[in-house]
Amino acid sequence: MTLKEGALATYVTSDAHGHVRALDRALEMARPGTQDTVFVLGDMVDRGPDPLGVITLVRSLPNVHVLMGNHEAMLLETILKDDQLDMMSWHMNGGFVTSEQLDALPRERYAELMDWLAALPTFAVVETDDARPTAAPGARRMHVLCHAGIDAPRLRASLAQAGVGPDGRGGYAYATAEDLLGAMVSQQVEDLLWIRREFWSNPTGLVGLDGRGPVVVAGHTPSILLGRYARLMCGTGVDENLRGVMVEVGPTRDTGGVADRICIDCSAAAGYPSGRVGVMRLEDRRVWYADINEGE
């Protein structure tokens, strides 16, 4: 099955970390249409040279949905506490340029931006066509989107409390977007923004033997480091030039050979020469990469 010409599509990207030129190039290659949907899974700021430029570009996109990342949360917490030790810690974690750019903003622009960041959600659920070559005609797929990952046992328990259990093949193919959104409310914000090993090293239990069920899409963990945490990676997390790539994780016999997690952090935080920004189209999993060039 292939993506139909003219069909609406859903794109995801994450962890640009201030590298606005690379993000702009990746989006230019992917060319989402004005009626398509773009999800940005956080960590727009810190590390790179133009964090507010990333925010400006992201907010200019038509039909964009932005989620909170741990670096946006760190920014907000630091400014709210106004504590010098917290400020030093944020700067050590890549926040110095972000802080400088914020300080240079006019008061009204600064206040509006802080309000916008504070209102960012921590998760989303989206259903798309499944246009991968191996998918059945007319197949659909739920995707749970968040910055870092989920507490999968907690999610399954929340679904059970709502009367939603696994189907006959062991997955949750019949869980609706409403079911998943209701269950995601019970997730700890700390996990959604920071989790790593517990998420990447264990199956979610959401995809069944027939390969159907929700797939979790997250960033936060740079792909060049993903091997420290993940099992059953589809690749090493880098290409032949040792640049970061998006990675599907977790295909087993129990999932019908389908990955139940996708890491979309292409290691932009590392900068040149290993960092990239990537954009994925969820329907067919096509990916576009923009390398971070020297000086960017």
UniProtKB/TrEMBL annotation:
MF annotations from Gene Ontology: bis(5'-nucleosyl)-tetraphosphatase (symmetrical) activity; phosphatase activity
A biological process from GO: RNA decapping
UniProt cross-references to InterPro entries, sorted A to Z: Ap4A_hydrolase, Calcineurin-like_PHP, Metallo-depent_PP-like
Sequence ranges assigned to domain Calcineurin-like phosphoesterase in this UniProt record: 11-230
GO cellular component term of the entry, any: cytoplasm
Cross-referenced Gene3D superfamilies: 3.60.21.10
Top-rank lineage group of the source organism: Bacteria
Protein name: Ser/Thr phosphatase family protein
